Amino acid sequence: MAKRLVIVESPAKAKTINRYLGEGYLVKASMGHIRDLPKKKLGVDIDHDFQPEYDIIPEREPLVEDLQSAAKEAESILLAADPDREGEAICWHLSKILEKFNSNIYRVLTHEITRNAVEEAFKNLASLDQDKINAQQTRRLLDRLVGYLISPLLWEKVGRGLSAGRVQSIALRLICEREKEIKDFIPEEYWTISAHLEASLPPAFKANLAKIDGKKVKLENEKNASAIVQELWDLPFILKNIEVKKKKRNPSPPYITSSLQQDGFRLLRFPVRKTMSVAQKLYEGLEIGERESTGLITYMRTDSVRVSDEAVQSAREFIKSHFPPKYLLNKPRTYKNKRKAQDAHEAIRPTSFDLPPDVVKPFLKDEEYNLYRLIWNRFIATQMSPALVEETEFQIDASRYLFVAKGEVLEFDGYLVLYPKLEKEDNILPKAQEGEKLKLLDIESKQNFTQPPPRYTEGSLVKELEAKGIGRPSTYAPIISTLQGRVYVFKEKGRFIPSDLGLFVTDYLIKNFPDLMDFAFTARLEGELDLISEGKQEWLAYLKSYYTLLEKDLREAMKGESIKKNGIPVEENCPECGKPLVIKEGKYGRFRACSGYPDCRFKESMIKKEVKPLDETCPECGSQLVMRRGKYGTFAACSDYPKCKYIKKEKKDTGIRCPLACEGTLIRRKTRKGRIFYGCSEFPKCKFATWDEPLSQPCPECGRHFVLKKSTLKGKPYLYCSDEKCAFKETITGTEG
């Protein structure tokens, strides 16, 4: 009997859905996209309405043959890729290569991978959404036009190996402009004065000087501050006014993609890519004890805070059964979407309310549990009572000086019962009476300096991109990776610093492509793509208008002078002759050299970047540690090199348990020659080590052990099980992992 052929993107998702559907279905994975524009040429016929040329990705060819064979024998083909533009495009490409083998092709939309949701989705078959396909294709062609037309210009005028991207270059501009703000920032000195006071009842408290003669205080130097302190010692401090305000604190909306990425970084220190990778596993399904593989969260690529009535009711039932009645909100709380939000998917929420974090914890890796707990708490909190906070403010007169002390007490924790408490020991004020004379215990003055804006972290960069309406949260992870891969930026203490190369490329692009590098222009483009996906904008007309602007800028940029010969200027001078340094290209890559060559022959490999001091001392000689950049990235080492050759070893824990069943986890390490391998954290007790990359995904064959990725010099890379007794082995034909 012919089966229905179901195609999803990943083996994990295929495994989960296969369990729900049963024997009448054959579920296979496409491993992401099976077709794309060619790698070595533009692949877009500009003269014939931007007709794209799609090729089967070479690594996918055996997979495509397998899918075509299965399509011939199938009763029908059900395309069940993710329910977004990218998923719709994957389904469209699959339909194009399979329709000649079987024309009975349908679309299935699964917003969560649970038995009920999957069964319901497969009862309601649909057709492909051409508007979504047009929007995705427009985005893909725009990215190709920008990348393949501007990048060669950079190679010719600036240097080899450089690249530009529609959103990538805008993100780089943000980082570079922040760095310039920091460099141009001039700190201003100011002084603060605090009085330590005591009322008739404890505890003692601190009040800050706020006004002098009714005007906001501004003390610019120590002399003025010291004079005021001297005067205050002789003045009475009278509690003039007490203000008590009761405030409600309401929970935040349920997570959308960008807010999950930001909290993943802020609370768990997860890079954006890791947050999305772990969320993908929670969505696609994990083994939970004796239960079948279960998807724990709804689809994680969404910018809508809408949730179903059924999910709201389930959350309220959970609160009712696990908390006292006062913690349940009287009526369901709803949230409004931002104006530009797409409402195709619900917010990110749990799928099963009988699976709270503590129940599933034994079956999840730490990273999976921590992210799931974030999502669970955030959603449950939306239906809980607000927290009630009593804020108290003391206004204290000391002649012409006004001091202010603020404190707060959490009267009812409400939804905050799910989170750490708010109380702080240092801001609890005593019970006191207006008009009471306070005892002065001490006065302190402190020198301060205004601070420049902080460099971007992954979390704050995502927040800024979202605020400006640039890109989509699902694209932020690859953008950040590209910026680091091109050495346009590097990280120091978790914050992005642009390289000399990144700064110069940004300035070059702003000068030659002012429209394409404009924040508002790029944000409007995202809005146009949304309109195309809704059928309200004609995709080809918009593509033509964008290309007209791009072509005009390209023509002007081609007239510009090449700086390749003279080198990229940097804001540093030669240590030998004092002339400006430039970045040049050589046989072994980029290097810094003196612009006065051949009179001055100073040059320095780019591998040996400037050292940056750290707030640590060398454990071997006591000298200060510095951060250096070497061939294999940044590392901390002794500043007294070569006398002291200490290098701080940084272990990178994958979180994957050692396959030898010891207590350790696998650590990413490097050999002396820089080759990466993975070894047990319990070394030398456990000597397990492998050159192959361990992936935090269960073996699809045995389900009990994790998978390793084997890189081969000849043939194709493949996956295999970490348990030698398991026979699983699969050639990699899909995306990473």
Features:
disordered C terminus; Topoisomerase I, domain 2; four-stranded parallel sheet; six-stranded antiparallel barrel; alpha+beta; Rossmann fold; 737 residues
Task: Report on this structure.
It is a single chain. By secondary structure, the chain is an alpha+beta fold. It has six domains: 4-128, 3-Layer(aba) Sandwich (Rossmann fold); 137-185 and 454-558, Topoisomerase I, domain 2 (Orthogonal Bundle), CATH 1.10.460.10; 189-243 and 389-449, Topoisomerase I, domain 3; 257-381, Orthogonal Bundle (Topoisomerase I, domain 4), CATH 1.10.290; 568-605, no CATH class; 653-731, no CATH class. The chain contains 17 helices and 32 strands. The strands form nine sheets. Strands 9-10-14-13-12-15 form a six-stranded antiparallel beta barrel. A four-stranded parallel sheet has the order 2-1-7-8, with helices on both faces. The chain has a four-stranded antiparallel sheet with strand order 18-19-20-21. A hairpin with a 5-residue loop joins strand 26 (665-670) and strand 27. Helix 8 (257-268) crosses helix 12 (366-381). It is globular. Mean pLDDT is 86; it is low at 422-426 and 733-737.
